[in-house]
Amino acid sequence: MRRIIPTALLLLTLSLAGCSTGMSASDESSGQSSSDQSVVEPAPAPAEGEAGSDSSGFVGARDEDRQIVTTGFVTVTAEEPLDAASDAVRIVEAAGGRVDARNETAPTPGDRGSATLTLRIPSAKLTATLDELKTLGETEQVSLSSVDVTTQTQDLDARITASRASVDRLTALLATATDTEVLIKLETAISERQGELESMEAQRRGLADQVSMSTLDLNLISEADAPVDSPDTFWSGLETGWTAFVDFVGFLLVALGVLLPWAVVAGVAVLVVLLVLRRQRRRAVARSDAAKDEIPGIDAAI
């Protein structure tokens, strides 16, 4: 009888935990169904003072309660990209952000180098920080995108709360259990619930970090790497053509400078070969004339 009672309590607790998990999943599925239905049949506009619904299907969320993940990238042309990268780091750190990645390319004779940074900026200060980053040079491109994760966040919060309650019930039962078999089953169940809880908490922390800290990729380039606008008028076309002609002439001069030493060496070698061949030909003619003089009557015979 003593073994039956703890076992029955264990089965009852596990059933309650399973029910709580099932209810959470059922609520999530029900929420998704209602969201899909709202897309097919739009609800009437809410009355003044009532909360509306956002594009993600979440109903009743106020603007200050919405969870938004913002990402983007910026391209800036700077006279000294590497120095501008250091200035960008100072701007971001002053705003309370951080640098997650930084890649730099060393300058070359025709290029001042470049730098690419992955910046994490507090979402509340993103606009002000972006304006400061634009002052590092000439802004070539800016792109920002936002994703509403309010429903996902609230779903995780509900599942975490249910999972914690389940772990607490199993832990309380474990403290009063005396049967070895019951203890083993309780420890196994607690371990499984704890693993699920830690996984959901990690997801929630990652989501909170993405919401609180926007991600911005900053690309700093030199004027040599800056995109060139296509000509759209006669004078701009003439300027582009003249620039291309000058560049082509410069390329030919560079090629001539590269080939000139080889041409000189090749010319000297050809001259030496020609002199050797000419000398050998003269010697052959001289031997032929000498042979004719040594043979009597050869002229008469000829």
Structure report:
With 302 residues, this protein is an alpha+beta fold. It has a domain at 67-147 and 216-225: 2-Layer Sandwich (Alpha-Beta Plaits), CATH 3.30.70. The protein contains seven helices and five strands; from the N terminus they run αβαββαβααβαα. The protein has helices spanning 4-40, 81-94, 126-134, 150-176, 180-212, 234-294, 298-301; strands at 68-77, 98-105, 114-122, 138-148, 213-221. β2 (98-105) and β3 (114-122) form a beta hairpin. α1 (4-40) packs antiparallel against α4 (150-176) and α4 (150-176) packs antiparallel against α5. The longest helix has 61 residues, at 234-294. Residues 21-62 are annotated as: Disordered. InterPro entries: DUF4349. This is DUF4349 domain-containing protein. Pfam families: DUF4349.
Q: Quick summary of this structure?
A:
The chain is built from 7 helices and 5 strands, in the order H-E-H-E-E-H-E-H-H-E-H-H. With 302 residues, it is an alpha+beta fold. It has a domain of 91 residues: Alpha-Beta Plaits, CATH 3.30.70.
Give me the Rg, rounded. 41 Å
Task: Enumerate how many helices there are, as a single number.
Answer: 7
**Helix-strand pattern:** HEHEEHEHHEHH
Task: Please tell me what the overall shape is.
Answer: elongated
Instruction: Quickly name the level 1 CATH class of the domain at 67-147 and 216-225.
Output: Alpha Beta
Q: Which topology of the domain at 67-147 and 216-225 does CATH recognise?
A: Alpha-Beta Plaits
What strand order characterises the main sheet? 2-3-5-1-4
Mean pLDDT: 79
Ranges where pLDDT stays below 50 over 5 or more residues in a row are 1-5, 19-60
CATH architecture of the domain at 67-147 and 216-225: 2-Layer Sandwich
Beta-strand segment tally: 5
- Based on secondary structure, the structural category is alpha+beta
Per DSSP, what share of the residues sits in E-state strands of 2 or more residues?
A: 15-25%
**Share of helix among residues?**
55-70%
Largest sheet: 5 strands, mixed
N/C terminus separation? 146 Å
